[in-house]
Design brief:
single chain, alpha/beta, seven-stranded mixed sheet, five-stranded parallel sheet, 7 helices
Length: about 350
């Protein structure tokens, strides 16, 4: 990646939007480190947008172990992935970062004025002075049902990890999956949908015991259907299930909701010309900048001598990366080190003006 003026740093030419969103910084990834990156940028008065392939903030921390306890966050004896994400969202809220969920940054191209033009899978484009890759081990994307041609029903009668269940009011819904998310979705739908059936490959679940107990109680009450088996066909209106006894069950439906977990994919980042080391991006340890000026990498996506894949290390990296970006966003400007305990300016930014120093 040489990054010469006008050179495409991605795998192909970017189809430019007539009006890209201009921003000081674009953060790729809305996990804990990406959220804290936005907070650190906000303290330096650097505006940012955040793009994530998942439908909500939290990244791997929420998607893979949302309910499991985390014990190594400074000053927090115990929290969970979901609670940590909510705390970070509340912390960064005063800076009003703009979130773009369900999108993946696909292309990256250096412009003549040294800014970076990025395009997403949703056709959106950004023109940023700096870019922060906080993508963990890659973009987490939903695991798909392995049936030929099923993709044509996505967004119509097939949905993966929907961020809202309100659209299913009064419908006949089948939920496919056996983890916490699948069971919680099926349970929640019983209060919204006309009919709900949970489908899982076996009569056993990778979910919290209390959630399994709640699901089985609803089945016993006749409020939730349960079918053991694997999807074998789908035409948009009927889901065919292959059962363990080699028979076939057909389930008429209005919507199929698949909660089969998520998987990380490095995706387009691998095509941007970075000299990857074991699917990680090398950075310096002064400001966690990659070998491409203005492109920083923080959290599990980066690598350097002594690297440890811990959330707390990502927080440190995000702090120094924000200061590194400040020199590019505000060239020639001396930026003083301020403390949130005493700085009246930081109190104004945080919305706590008038707080006692």
């Amino acid at each position: 990646m040489e990054g010469q003026d006008g050179q495409d740093l991605g795998a192909g030419a970017l189809s430019q939007s007539p009006a890209p969103i201009e921003t000081d910084a674009l953060i790729i990834g809305a996990g804990p480190v990406g959220l804290f990156q936005a907070f650190q940028l906000g303290l330096l008065e650097i505006s940012c947008h955040i793009v994530d392939a998942l439908p909500a903030a939290g990244g791997q921390c929420v998607a893979l172990y949302g309910h499991k306890p985390i014990y190594d966050i400074p000053g927090t004896p115990v929290t969970s992935g979901r609670d940590l994400a909510q705390s970070l969202l509340a912390q960064v809220a005063p800076f009003k970062p703009a979130f773009h969920f369900g999108e993946q940054v696909a292309t990256l191209e250096r412009q003549a004025d040294q800014r970076l033009l990025l395009g997403t899978s949703a056709g959106r484009s950004f023109l940023a002075k700096t870019v922060f890759i906080a993508a963990g081990v890659g973009a987490f994307v939903p695991k798909r049902i392995a049936l030929d041609d099923i993709g044509r029903f996505e967004g119509r009668s097939l949905f993966y990890h929907p961020d809202s269940l309100d659209r299913f009011a009064g419908q006949a819904v089948v939920v496919n999956g056996g983890d916490d998310t699948a069971l919680e979705t099926a349970i929640a739908l019983t209060a919204i949908a006309r009919q709900v059936t949970l489908v899982h490959r076996r009569d056993g679940f990778q979910a919290d015991e209390a959630t399994v107990a709640a699901m089985r109680a609803l089945v016993a009450e006749g409020r939730l259907g349960f079918q053991v088996g694997q999807p074998s066909g789908f035409d948009g209106q009927t889901l065919r299930i292959a059962t363990p006894d080699a028979s076939t069950v057909e389930l008429p439906l209005d919507a199929l909701v698949a909660c089969l977990g998520i998987s990380p994919r490095l995706g387009p980042i691998a095509d941007w010309g970075f000299e990857l080391e074991r699917k990680q991006v090398p950075v310096d340890t002064e400001k966690y900048q990659t070998r491409e000026a203005g492109v920083f990498a923080v959290g599990d996506i980066n690598t350097y001598p002594g690297k440890k894949k811990l959330i707390v290390c990502g927080f440190h990296e995000a702090t120094l990366a924000a200061w590194g970006a400040a020199a590019l966003v505000f060239p020639g400007k001396a930026i003083p080190l301020q403390y949130t305990t005493t700085s009246t300016r930081l109190h104004e930014l945080l919305g706590v003006a008038g707080a006692k120093a």
